[in-house]
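Following up on my earlier thread - several people asked me to post the actual chain instead of describing it. Fair enough. Here it is, all 146 residues.
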Amino acid sequence: MSPKRAAQLLRLTSAGTVLFGLMLVLAPHSPLKPAGLIFVDLAFLPLDRTQDMDNEVAQLMMAISGGLLCGLGVLIWQITTRLFLQNPTLARRILIPALLAWYLPDSLGSMLSGAGFNVVMNTVFLAMFMVSTAAQRPCIAFRGTV
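Reply from S.P.:
Thanks for posting it. Predicted structure:
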């Protein structure tokens, strides 16, 4: 993957992360509620519509987690647009630990709370970020031929 293509994929994934975070924040209080309910129902498989967001604790946790996802998405966007192409090694050294610092506790907490499918959803997001972050490094076998 070319560095430019990797940066585009990182920006797209970052924007998706920001939008998903905003959806989590707003869902309990807006017409986005069905989307939020689908997410929590999916996280707590099976799809049985037994989860809700009507209590203040759930709404607070959605606000906090959604806000943190927005912040993570903006941070990755900034690193991608301001650093990634100029200094990819430094960008990777910043991004990979930050992504793992989100992924590992989020996934552990999801498992402990019975929301095991959230680990699968987290893994999809992590894979999109990591593929873009790692894949922009030129492949040694193809140096000089591309």
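The chain is about 75% helix and 0% strand. That should answer part of your original question.
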